[in-house]
Each structure stands twice: as C-alpha cells, then as structure tokens.
Amino acid sequence: MNPLKILFIGDVVGSPGRKIVSQVLPRLIRRWGIGLVVCNAENAAGGSGLTLRCFEELTDAGVDVMTMGDHVYRKDEIHQVFDRTDRVLKPANFPAEAPGPDLALVEARDGTLAAVFSVLGRTFMKPVDCPFHAADRILERVGPNVRVVFVDVHAEATSDKQLLGRYLDGRVSAVLGTHTHVATADEQVLPGGTAFQSDVGMTGPHDGILGRRYDRVLSATLTMVPSHFDVATGDPRLNGALVSIDPGSGRALAIQRVNLRQEDAQRILTDAADQPSDPSAPGLSGRRP
C-alpha cells in the first residue's frame, strides 16, 4: 500500500498567502502525489478571519480541510462558511456552545479515511479548556477504525506543542503547530510514529512582521500610537509540512518542511513535467522517506 501524503499549509495570511496557494497547490498535488491538503486559514481574510470568498478560493485551489484558531470569529461571514461546509473547524477545546464543527472525517484522494481536528494552546492565549483532555474526547469520538488522525495545535509556546506531541505520540499520525508564523527546524517522527513540528510557519508575505507591514508595526511599537497593521506584500512564500503516512497503521513514515519561495513556485509552474518529483525538489527539506 502506497503511503498517504498529507500537505499541511501553515497560517495563510491575506491576499498574498491565498494567491501563492491558488497558483501552485494544484500542481503540487499532482507532482508530489498529495492525497490530502489541510490548511490553517484563520488569517486568510485581510490577515484575520475567514470569509466565504476566501474559503472558496482555497477550496478551488485544492484545500480539503481548513483549521482555525483564536481568530476564528473575526469575520461575521464565518457563520455562512459553517452553513456551507463541515470542513472548516473551530478549535476542539472551545466551549460546546461555540459555533462550528470541531472534527472533520474526510476521504483522501486514495480513499483513506482521515480525521482532522485542532486545539488551542493556553500559554499567552485566551482562556480555553484543556487541549489534552479535548484531544482525548475527540479521539474517543473518532474511534479505533480511523487510523489516520491529523492534529493542528495552534499555540504560542513551543513547550505546549511539544508536550501535546509527546502526549499523543502513537495515538495520532501527526501533531503540527501553527500560530507563531515562524517555521521551526524540529520536524521529526516521534518514537510512537507521530510526525511532529513545533510550527510549520506562515504562508504569505515574509517581507514584514509576521505577515504585516513592518513600518506600521514599528511605528506603533516606538510611539505607542495605534496603527492598522496592514498585510504586507513582499516575498510571498508557501510554508508548511509534507507528511508521509502508512494508511494501514496510521504511523508517520516521514516529515519534510516546505518552504516554497515565489521563484520556486514559478519554476514548478513553468516545468512541463507533471509527474511526482524527487523528494529533494526545491522547497522541501527535512526527514525523507
């Protein structure tokens, strides 16, 4: 049985993030043999929240499931998104009364059934339920018949994320972090077979401060005068992780960091070949199959 490849796209920020996803993802799905695409989309609309149009852009590009975080309700249109689909997820440790689904059960392109959910960290974040207990509750609902389970841990502290990875090691296929917008170099497969990375980074403009114009952020920092933190535009990149999973056991076989710059994306788009490429292709690094 061939490995199932899941591409996780890190926090998509504004129009530059959506644009590079729309440009390159359809080709990546074919070239890298991707069976499932998960994307953190909580910053997709103007840098905070998700609208119906942004949801449609990402879906049309090939995103199968979208996880959200602390900005899930920043745009009122999120309620229309929830009416449209059950594949845009609120964090599972939000209150039961909070709108939106907290678990997606989806078929990958090869027919493998996969479960996807996210949890919010608690260090330097808004007060929420325990992410460890929330993960336990979700796994009880998933049951033993679904072997491939993917978790987005949306948190500030790397220690929170590492602890959750160890806590779920051997029980889920991957625990990958979002929220800080800065990719970490600690991608690994834990001893129990769970792929882990503290943060997969940001998909959007890297010529700025976490996707925002650095002049606006710097001015507010120096003067204490509030300024609108507009989304930056320069150096768009697609950051994320590519995880190879044994669909029979649900164990991760490999994880690779994804850092596609605009020039890498252009090279992929202009390359006539459309077959799965070598795992050392531009934009990929880390542990390989």
UniProtKB/TrEMBL annotation:
Q: Which SUPFAM superfamilies does the record match to this protein?
A: Metallo-dependent phosphatases
- InterPro entries on file: Metallo-depent_PP-like, YmdB-like
Query: Segment Disordered: which positions?
Result: 267-289
Please name the PANTHER family in this protein's record: 2',3'-CYCLIC-NUCLEOTIDE 2'-PHOSPHODIESTERASE
Q: What is this protein called?
A: TIGR00282 family metallophosphoesterase
Source species, please? Paludisphaera mucosa
